[in-house]
């Protein structure tokens, strides 16, 4: 089976490429990346050594996409994946829309032409910011938790946010481009009878992630702690009680392999949340505590009262649907993810400078 991975030099795209190769699955891989993410150029050498073809091209340009060879599946991992994208000095709204949505449209047209399947890596940031920000929470120790005794909106529960949770705007420009990409992918799948799978991923984390405070928070936090760089808890009381959950991309790869092998499965929902869930949930304050023990010193963390537009205090993603439909579950839990990032940080003293700028 021939598979095109877009964003092949990015954190997730490169992890998928590696995991697919290591799986022994009979896949003929090709990648494309425009190297727009600082740090992504570092993965080029690996592909060269392994003899994997990764084209330097841009999915925003239909001519770059048209020049790619025919494949059976496209796995779309190219994006500007920051929830602040288009709202800060690093990118304009138009750039985000072109990378994330126009790119998807070009790839869907490519799939239509070659009768290829399309697998979109979407995000939990398609869920309504207001609905997430209004969830009833209680702080226990140094982490928020959901108050199970209070009325909860559809799709919210102690196991997390499921696919029926509201997706009404505002959801960030990033979330909006992904939600629109999901809708178009479903539309192409249904009207042209193409296989389509959509994975709404929660936070993905592991060694080699290009860490910034707005994207790749665990890689950023551990690297910054180790280098004694300034760290700050933003908003929500300023003590780092905000909670997310993490999934290692190797676990995502195991699911994607099942989805590519399955092709269309009549009756199965095409869209599912994919996450580490409650078992791999953490608060920032807990990560700071973990860093103190792991690195053997205390590093002070400042605080700021201001909450940024897309910040939310609690988001654990419930992936029960993916677990049930695909007989899938994560194997790499939070301690292993943190350990892996810490080792990588120790081995790469310049990682923040390489990956957090730009
Ligand atoms: N990392 C996460 O926590 C997370 C969570 C949910 C969903 N996702 C999704 O997974 C995908 C990959 O994210 P990531 O964390 O690997 O991000 P990343 O920034 O590390 O990788 C994205 C890659 O895409 C490339 N790229 C961007 N625009 C491109 C374009 N127009 N043409 C070609 N290449 C382009 C970049 O150079 C980069 O190498 C994204 O679609 C993102 O929305 C990631």
Write a structural description.
- The protein has one domain (2-355): Rossmann fold (3-Layer(aba) Sandwich).
- Strand 2, helix 2 (44-50) and strand 3 (53-56) form a beta-alpha-beta unit.
- The mean pLDDT is 96.
- Helix 7 runs parallel beside helix 9 (284-295).
- It is α/β, with parallel strands linked by helices and 358 residues long.
- 38% of the residues lie in helices and 18% in strands.
- The longest helix is centred in the N-terminal third of the chain and has 22 residues, at 93-114.
- The strands form 5 sheets. It has a 7-stranded parallel sheet, with helices on both faces. Strands 11, 13, 15 and 17 form a 4-stranded mixed sheet that branches. Strands 6-7 form a two-stranded antiparallel sheet.
- The protein is built from 12 helices and 17 strands.
- It is globular, with a radius of gyration of 19 Å.
- Residues 6-7, 9-13, 32-37, 40, 58-60, 77-81, 99, 103, 121, 123, 201, 203-204, 210 line the site of nicotinamide-adenine-dinucleotide.
């Amino acid at each position: 089976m021939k598979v095109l991975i877009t964003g092949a030099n990015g954190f997730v795209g490169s992890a998928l490429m590696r995991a697919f190769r290591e799986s022994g699955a009979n896949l003929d891989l090709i990648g494309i990346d425009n190297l727009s993410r600082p740090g992504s150029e570092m993965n080029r050498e690996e592909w060269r050594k392994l003899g994997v073809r990764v084209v330097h091209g841009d999915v925003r340009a239909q001519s770059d996409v048209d020049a790619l060879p025919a494949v059976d599946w496209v796995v779309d991992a190219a994006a500007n994946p920051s929830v602040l994208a288009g709202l800060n000095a690093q990118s304009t709204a138009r750039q985000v829309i072109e990378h994330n949505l126009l790119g998807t449209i070009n790839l869907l047209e490519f799939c239509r032409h070659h009768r290829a399947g399309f697998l979109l890596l979407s995000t939990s940031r398609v869920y309504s910011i207001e609905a997430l920000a209004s969830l009833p929470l209680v702080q226990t120790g140094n982490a928020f938790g959901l108050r199970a005794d209070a009325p909860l909106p559809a799709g919210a529960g102690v196991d997390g946010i499921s696919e029926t949770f509201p997706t009404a705007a505002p959801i960030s420009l990033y979330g909006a481009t992904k939600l629109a990409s999901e809708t178009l992918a479903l539309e192409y799948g249904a009207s042209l009878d193409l296989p389509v799978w959509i994975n709404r991923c929660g936070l993905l984390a592991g060694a080699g992630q290009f860490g910034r405070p707005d994207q790749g928070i665990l890689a950023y936090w551990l690297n910054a702690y180790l280098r004694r760089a300034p760290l700050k808890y933003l908003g929500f009381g300023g003590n780092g009680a905000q909670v997310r959950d993490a999934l290692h991309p190797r676990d995502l790869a195991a699911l994607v392999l099942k989805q590519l092998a399955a092709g269309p499965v009549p009756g199965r929902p095409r869209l599912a949340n994919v996450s580490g869930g409650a078992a791999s949930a953490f608060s920032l304050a807990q990560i700071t505590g973990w860093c103190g023990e792991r690195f053997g010193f205390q590093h002070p963390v400042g605080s700021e009262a201001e909450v940024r537009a897309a910040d939310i205090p609690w988001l654990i993603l419930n992936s029960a649907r993916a677990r049930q439909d695909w007989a899938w579950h994560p194997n790499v839990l939070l301690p292993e993810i943190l350990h892996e990032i810490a080792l990588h940080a120790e081995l790469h003293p310049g990682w923040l400078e390489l990956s957090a700028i730009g």
